[in-house]
Amino acid sequence: MTQNSFSKNILITGGTVFVSRYAAEYYTEKGYHVYVLNRNTRPQPKGVTLIEADRQHLDDRLRDYHFDAVLDITAYTAEDISSLLSALGSYDAYILISSSAVYPEYAPQPFTENTKTGANKFWGNYGIQKIEAEQILLERKPDAYILRPPYLYGPMNHIYREAFVFDCALNSRKFYLPQDGEMKLQFFHVNDLCRFMDILLEKRPKQHIFNVGNKETISVLDWVTLCYQLLGKHAAFFHVPENIEQRKYFSFYNYEYYLDIEEQARWMPETKPLRDGLQESLEWYLALPESISRKPYMAYIDNQLKSILNIL
Fold it and tell me: Most-buried pick from 35, 172, 226, 312 (CB within 10 A)?
């Protein structure tokens, strides 16, 4: 454990799944005093101090604390932001993990931080609520930082994305690939997200909204191939035509987008290679397969998609 010259108090909203849990363990390992705010319905990370509460009903639960930083990882709506800000006592920095879903799909790409936000037909209400959350935060805390990641991945990812491909590889399944497989994905490792938050807290750049992510994109074909290779398997593909709803059999919408992350790169030029990050994801998944929130992609493929494709 790396011990700081003084122990900072950090409040993390959530703390029990994926990004918030990873961040809680990351900052605990750095020797910070980590408080997590959640309803205590799941196991807590080791070494944290739990503040058991619903963020919508905090009353004076936070009033007597001082936090060097608030890492708001679980805010989805303007109400989430307002309730937390109103409940906080004294604190210094505030970082909101927002989303690239705030950019409308029709805007020119790559999206920059100056791209006008708006409703995205693929993300729907989720993106709209994230926009509203950002707006209320900057109205009430103009010096807050906002991060807009693409698809996050890495250890503790309970979302059925890379784990779905790992399952297909483990079962030596033929992979049903959207169209020609050339749709591009952009990822960002959860450790890189934490490292960039470190930079914000230490350097305090004047810019307050950042796209974050890997500079490189990867096609879905190459991504699936890589996931299979990590398990020593060869991926055989069946290419599914566009008229089949992609989200029923695959982990991502039929939506390709790309973030410009040049501003992030000025402060953090290097990010984790995707192969290394997926290897970490695989090792975590093999150790804790029960942690995944699985979706019925395989059942749809076996019970419906194969029959539909035989008819076409």
Answer: 35
